[in-house]
Structures are given as C-alpha cells and as structure tokens.
Amino acid sequence: MFNNFKKIVILCLRLIIFCFGLGIIFNQISLLINVFKEANHSFSIHLYSHKNKDCVVPTWNRVTSKDVPYSEDFKKWAAVRIGAFRHIKDAQVRLLSSFVYSDQISIVTTSQNIDNKKVTCRYYDCNRDEVPYSSFDTVVVPMTVITCPRRYGAEFVSVTFDENETPHEPIPLTFRIYDEPIHELSVCVGPLYGKKSKWLEIVEYVEHYKLVGVSYFYFTLFSINEYDRTVVDYYAKFGYAEYTTYITEYQELGWMFHLIQTQDCHHRSRHHSKWVINVDIDERIIYTGSNDILYFLRSMPASIGELSITANRILTTGTIPEKLKNFANLQSELTFLKYNKTTEVSWYNFKGIIRPDLVYVLFYHWSFRQKPNVHVISIPKQIIHLRHYRSVDQNSLNGNWMEFYNGSLKETRLAPDFEQQLIKNVKEKVKYVYDQRWV
Ligand SMILES: *[C@@H]1O[C@H](CO)[C@@H](O)[C@H](O)[C@H]1NC(C)=O
Ligand SMILES: *[C@@H]1O[C@H](CO)[C@@H](O)[C@H](O)[C@H]1NC(C)=O
C-alpha cells in the first residue's frame, strides 16, 4: 500500500519536472524568434539606431475616426478667411504644438499665411514610424491650425503641403482627452515679449487671478530673461501653470505673432479648462457681482460660449525694477498700489471669457465662430470688468493712447480687503522665489 503511494508520488514529480523543462525550451525558442523578428525590423527601418520597442497602445488611443466634427463648416469659413489675418508672409511653417482630443487632433504651426491651403496630416507610432495608410488630406483652418481625424496608436504627428515634401520631424501629441475639464477657470496669458522686466508683473498677475478663483495659467514665452523666467518656473513646478516656448527662424517675436499664441492657447486649453479668460499680462479681472466669479459662471446656461467683458485703463508711467533689491521696499513697487488714475469703463478693446470647447475660431481675445446654437453675451460692467494697467510710455505698443482719450480720470483702487490679501500673497511668493542670499 505504502509502496504504491511512493511510486505514484515519484511518477508525478517526474512528470512535473518534465513539463517544466518542456516549458523552458518553448520559452527559449519563442524568445529567439522574437529576437530575430525585432532584429529584422530594426535593421530594415533604422539602419543606425536601436532596436524598436513594441508599441503598447493605451485604451484612449485605440481610436480611428473618418473625419473631424463640423469639417464642412470649417472649410466654408476657411474659404472666406474667417479669423485669418496674414502677417510675416515669408515665415516658415514650423510645428508649434499638437493636441489629441476624443474627436480630433489639432496641430498648431507658426505660420500666418497658410490659411485655406491644402495640407496632409501624417501620423506616427511610438517609435516615430509612420502609421501605414494613415494620412488624411484637408485644409488649414482656422488660420494656422490643421485639424485631423484620430488614428489608432498615433503618438506623433506631422504635416506635408505637397506630395514630394519630406515631412517635418513629427511632434508629440499633448493629451487632452478628459471626461471633465481639469480646471474650471483658467487664464490664457497674452504672449510675453520685449525687454521690459516682468517678474513682479507676473507675480502680481497670477496672485490677483488666483484670488479671483482662477486655478491655472497658460503662458506663452516669446522672450523672457532668466531672472523673470524663474517665477514662471515656480508656478509651473507647483502645478499652477504651463508654458509654451517658440523656436522660429526669427531672433525676436513681437506683437505680430500674437495671433499664433491665440490659436495655441485656444487648443491647449480646450477640454483642459472649462472657462478661459483671454487677457494680456497687464489686465486684471474685477468681479463685483454677488458671491464670486465661479458662482456666476456656474449660473451660465450651457449654450453660452463667451462672455464679453469691458475694460477701463489705469495710467502707468514707471517701469518695474530689474531685480528685487530690498525686500522691505517691495510694497512701494507694486503696480496695483502705485497707480490709480483710471479712465471710464468702455467697450473699446473688450476681452472675452471663453469656453474653448464651444468656440471654434478665435481672433485675438474674442471668438469669431461658435458651435451651432452657442451664443456670446455681453456682461454689464456692474458685474465684471477689467483693470488694464496701461503704459503711457511712447515706446510701448499704442503708448500714445491718452492722446485719443476724451473722458475724465478718476482715482480708483482694488477693494481694500482684496488689496490686503493680494499684498500678503505677492510678498510671500516674491520672498520665496527672489529673496536670495549667497552661501
Ligand atoms: C473726442 O472728442 C472729439 C471732439 O471733442 C470728438 O470728435 C471725438 O470723437 C472724441 N473721441 C472719442 C474717442 O470719444
Ligand atoms: C491715488 O494715488 C495717489 C498718489 O499715490 C494717492 O495720494 C491717493 O490717495 C490715491 N487714491 C486712492 C483712491 O487710493
């Protein structure tokens, strides 16, 4: 009895060892096959480079679509040049950014003279190999943006304007497929350029909007010095901001490139932020309605794509110091305390708070075309207006604006409790980022 049991156990053990060995052999063979396969692959495609990895396509990227939403409307608008304004006509077409949404891909370029041109979308997998039979012919619209359908596994995109052109090195897709926008209210900050110091202006700006209820900032850096850049990096590092930089063939970018920032920020914020305030670095929103601005925005019907906002101007004369010299004197340098001569509120140069997913063509700070049945409304100045700290320096853009102003000037300031909190927050940030010492 016992002997029989022992025999059975030994038999079983032998069987297990045999199967195990067989498994190892199979495994080795399949590994070898894979190595051969990949070696072939990498030699045929990348003569001088490394072995290509297998692309793992995440669930969100297993989508191929036939066309883009409202493509016929877009083509009609392109034909009559809606929202397109031609500038810097010999500029190269460079890839600036690209975004993947659930229903389309948008590629933003740096050229302002390609609207309505024929163009082909090109798609690349995780190894930057072109996805076979994936290209799509369309036209450039709006202005400098190329909108393409989705492709299974596409991680990078590029474009070509004619058949014989070698596609430009592809650019990675920025993920914008969210069930709900990450941010309820953000700011598209107008481009930063020119030689004037900006560090303190940036801190005052961000802290002001954060107090109003903004949670995110999209910066565009045309040019900025290292000192000023530090505070943008601070906000980016702590999750309050992201920024786009441009690599063009021009040494300097000025206001003539603003419309590219408009397109980039519109697409960057789309499905990432529900509402976006589209303003420049010298403009601050003032909410004087009941409760707060988020409460006000939540009360808007779902069919509202843009709120138009009036502005007044506060004369500014001096410049910001180049660096923080003495922290104790900081308060005397703050623009929002220093200047208070204010024009009347008017619709001249109004700005917009937009729903990037509901408006389709933007022109500078407001929208030109909206999704069907979406409306733009004007907000009374009693509820929201902008304070525009406007320089009267002859060297700044439209620095002579006072010559055309007929109205009266009044002394105005921020609400005292808001002002106190803002002073405190600005000081805190400036201390953290700029109050430095030697080791
Ligand atoms: C300024 O006043 C002049 C005459 O007093 C008038 O013709 C002009 O339209 C006004 N300009 C503005 C911007 O109101
Ligand atoms: C405006 O600024 C001037 C000069 O700094 C100051 O004397 C005046 O009190 C300020 N007005 C208000 C309303 O704060």
Automatic annotation (TrEMBL):
Coiled coil: none annotated. The chain crosses the membrane at residues 12-36. The keyword Endoplasmic reticulum does not apply. Signal peptide: none annotated. GO terms for cellular component: cytoplasm; membrane. The keyword Disulfide bond does not apply. Its EC number is 2.4.1.-. InterPro entries: Glyco_transf_92. It holds the Pfam family Glyco_transf_92. This is Glycosyltransferase family 92 protein. Keywords: Glycosyltransferase, Membrane, Transferase, Transmembrane, Transmembrane helix. One of its GO terms (molecular function) is glycosyltransferase activity. It is found in: Membrane. Belongs to the glycosyltransferase 92 family. It is a single-pass membrane protein.
